[in-house]
Design a protein that fits this description.
The chain has six domains: 82 residues, Ubiquitin-like (UB roll), CATH 3.10.20; 78 residues, membrane protein fhac (Ubiquitin-like (UB roll)); 86 residues, Ubiquitin-like (UB roll) (Roll); 76 residues, membrane protein fhac (Ubiquitin-like (UB roll)); 73 residues, Ubiquitin-like (UB roll); 239 residues, Porin (Beta Barrel). 17% of the residues lie in helices and 43% in strands. The protein contains 14 helices and 36 strands. A hairpin with a 3-residue loop joins strand 7 and strand 8. The longest helix has 17 residues. The chain is extended and about 115 Å long.
């Protein structure tokens, strides 16, 4: 029953005038009181409690002094009802004075839920707010049904098909109401069966393995893959279609999909009817249309292979490559259409690629939009496409990637729009969505090597919108304590040379001290400056220098023999002036969970002055190879080498370490290499490290690539000064592990068995590390 009622009328015999009625109400009743038009001497409002009188006056289509008539009265009633603030309105006329009598709707004092467990309260409150029910808003009983349906819809998205909602409205003082939604959630409806009908070329199990939806498994409590979702089903059907289209079934079609739920609303059955059609092989590819006289260039971009089954991915990739190639020549609106010519008798298909380059254009202007903090200059200096130059899709794509790699934006998109009134000009608009670049972080991590460690940092990656970095970092763990103040200017020069300044204070307790129960540490304050010189779009060379002092602290009785001998010969404190030279190239598709690409880096450190003379170099090479759509092979190689110069030994505090996570798993952290007379592991001046990992998606997680299991094979060792690299001395291990970008931070654990070891090696089969920031 609606809470509002039609407008009411009152006749006053002692007055010469008659009450005006609402037009809608009089039309429904089939009659109306009529008044002769008259001039309004005054307007009064009665019945207001919370609403400002100005709200009423502002809704009226007339003012004092205007001529009042029935049409204006009906318009006034419609306007007042449309505000949603009143459940009843009537107009009275008393001798040239119009009296507006209102009855306000109750205000929602509070919204409560009872019985809800699946959703957070805030999620349901937002859903109700979207349908008009929220604390502080006027209450309209007509919205209750919509609110209940919206809550049920929310539960349907979680496969709770038996959910029921009952509403209780409780009046409270001051014309307010409390609204309580009592939810009976019921049980979760789970997918019990997925049937694929009409498939002959591939078995049901192979096709169902493509889907994120499943009939459940031992990890379904985490993945919720056995809960039906129309969005997920549509995505799975697209995967099914792509699977067939990439194996020659050019005419494959999903004819229908039925989703049935059991009477008790607990079980769901999905039936997918498909028509596979005939399998086709590619007989040939030909180019048609205008290819700018560069047919041979375009032919080299074709990835469609005659004699192989038709693959929609190859066709799409070729079309995309053609479009980008046209764009590189300035044809921003080129059209490339693949036209398959099917011969069902022979099972062959010929593909004609028809090109229409349209017209060549140049870029008139480049605009930057969405940046409220970052200066335009910071974005523009990353662009390789220039204004008043021919449109070049390669340079535009490179520009977008460079802006994205700044890390200041969550989204970077480039829109191309034609300039009105011209046929050969376009404007580019770089739309960015800024993210907070200031970061105040308190963190913690735990590992089998360093136990519990705490970190804290204050960083601003985009100081005052200039693109400069400024940071203060603190780290404390069982083995390392560090304070670092850093600043980076990525465009120290107009040519893109970067400059980094670091001031640091490090206290290091080598891992060998934990093994031998010795008590010593290395204290190293220092400062450095480093310049990054871009030699290409992908290669950067780093040069720099600094000064640092390293003090070996500890009594003679607590020092390992190797450290004691070095301190006796060269003193407790050593000052070093190192020069650095490095190079890096990163072509991985992701730094966190890479699946393809290559990463390389070289670093060299040369001690040219002070108490030490040495050269320390390190080279790392990584390669990620996709094996199908779900498996990845990761290869890593690292080579470190150091040597003392000028007749001096290599500084022991610059040694490399090996063993444990990051090097050769299965061996205790930092325990590989030479052993001194006290049984400590001081590391060495040379290191070789080889790793291979085969990543497999964790069973039951669908296509979530952040949770992966892997099998690994590691090999490596550390060698002291005066020793040569001896592959016969390599230690090796194999095992399995788990990596996961978990809600509390990156997690990596492994369990390994040494397959090549020597007597006295320290073995640690299980190793793990997890970090978090909060």
């Amino acid at each position: 029953m609606p809470i509002s009622s039609p407008p009411a009328f009152r006749f006053i015999p002692s007055r010469p005038s008659v009450l005006a009625a609402a037009l809608l109400a009089t039309l429904q009743a089939g009659w109306a009181w009529a008044v002769e038009p008259f001039e309004l001497r005054d307007i009064r409002v009665e019945g207001l409690q919370r609403t400002e009188a100005g709200t009423v006056f502002g809704s009226l289509p007339f003012r004092v002094g205007d001529t009042y008539n029935d049409d204006k009265g009906a318009a006034a009633l419609r306007a007042l009802y449309s505000t949603g603030l009143f459940q009843n309105v009537r107009l009275e006329v008393e001798g040239g004075v119009l009296v507006v009598v209102v009855e306000e709707r109750p205000i929602v004092a509070g919204v409560e839920f009872a019985g809800q467990k699946e959703f957070d309260r805030d999620v349901l409150l937002k859903a109700l707010r979207d349908v008009g029910i929220a604390e502080g808003r006027p209450f309209d009983r007509a919205l209750i049904d919509r609110a209940e349906q919206e809550l049920k819809r929310q539960y349907l998205t979680r496969s709770l098909y038996g959910a029921d909602v009952a509403t209780t409205v409780t009046p409270v003082e001051n014309n307010r109401v409390n609204v309580t939604f009592t939810v009976t959630e019921g049980g979760v409806a789970r997918i019990r069966e997925i049937d694929i009908v009409g498939n002959r070329a591939f078995p049901d199990g192979e096709l169902r393995g493509l889907f994120d939806l499943s009939t459940g498994g031992w990890l379904s409590w985490y993945t919720k893959s056995d809960r039906y979702s129309r969005t997920k089903l549509n995505a799975d059907l697209e995967k099914l279609r792509a699977y067939y289209l990439n194996r020659g079934y050019l005419e494959f079609n999903v004819e229908s999909t039925q989703v049935a739920i059991s009477p008790d609303k607990q079980d769901i059955t999905i039936t997918i009817n498909v028509s596979e059609g005939q399998r086709f092989n590619v007989a040939g590819v030909r180019l048609e249309g205008d290819y700018l006289g560069k047919d041979e260039d375009f032919k080299r971009l074709v990835t469609i292979r005659p004699g192989q089954p038709y693959r929609a991915e190859d066709v799409a990739e070729t079309v995309r490559a053609f479009s980008e190639r046209f764009g590189a020549f300035g044809y921003a609106f080129a059209r490339v259409e693949p036209r398959p010519e099917i011969d069902r008798d022979t099972g062959l298909v010929r593909i004609a690629l028809v090109a229409e380059p349209q017209r060549r254009v140049y870029v008139r202007r480049i605009n930057v939009a969405g940046n409220t903090r970052t200066r335009d200059e910071v974005v523009r200096r990353e662009f390789r496409q220039f204004e008043s130059s021919w449109y070049d899709s390669d340079k535009i794509r490179l520009s977008r990637d460079r802006v994205d790699r700044l890390g200041y934006f969550t989204e970077v998109n480039i829109e191309t729009t034609e300039v009105p009134g011209t046929f050969d000009q376009v404007d580019l608009t770089v739309n960015v969505t800024e993210r907070p670049t200031g970061n105040l972080m308190v963190g913690a991590s735990f590992s089998s090597a360093e136990r519990l460690a705490f970190t804290a940092s204050v960083k601003q990656e985009n100081v005052f919108g200039t693109g400069n970095y400024l940071g203060l970092e603190l780290n404390t763990s069982r083995t390392n304590r560090t304070v670092v103040v850093s600043t980076v200017d990525p465009y120290f020069t107009r040519d893109g040379v970067s400059r980094a300044l670091d001031v640091y204070y490090r206290t290091t307790r080598p891992l060998s001290s934990q093994v031998t129960n010795t008590n010593y540490k290395l204290v190293t304050p220092g400062a450095s400056v480093r310049f990054g010189i871009p030699f290409s779009e992908y290669d950067t060379v780093y040069i720099g220098g600094g000064v640092e002092s390293t003090q070996i602290e500890g009594s003679a009785a607590s020092l390992p023999d190797s450290y004691l001998r070095y301190r006796t010969q060269f003193g407790e404190r050593s000052t070093t002036v190192p020069l650095t030279l490095g190079w890096s190239r990163d072509g991985r598709d992701s730094a966190l969970v890479p699946t393809r690409g290559r990463y390389q880096r070289v670093n060299a450190e040369w001690g040219v002055a002070g108490d030490t003379r040495y050269l320390r170099t390190n080279y790392q090479y990584q390669q990620y190879i996709p094996l199908g759509s779900r498996f990845t092979l990761g290869l890593n190689g690292e080579l470190g080498w150091g040597k003392g110069l000028g007749g001096r030994p290599y500084p022991i505090f610059k040694n490399f370490y090996g063993g444990g996570l990051g090097t050769v798993r299965g061996f205790d952290q930092g325990s590989l290499g030479p052993v001194d007379l006290t049984g400590a592991y001081p590391g060495g001046s040379k290191r070789i490290n080889l790793n291979s990992e085969l990543y497999v998606p964790f069973p039951g997680t669908g296509n979530d690539r952040t949770l992966r299991v892997f099998g690994y094979l590691d090999a490596g060792n550390v060698y002291g000064e005066g020793e040569d690299f001896d592959l016969g001395e390599l230690r090796a291990s194999t095992g399995i592990g788990l990596s996961w970008v978990s809600p509390v931070g990156p997690l990596k654990l492994s369990y390994g068995t040494p397959i090549r070891k020597e007597q006295g090696d320290r073995i640690q089969r299980f190793q793990f590390q997890i970090g978090t920031a909060f």
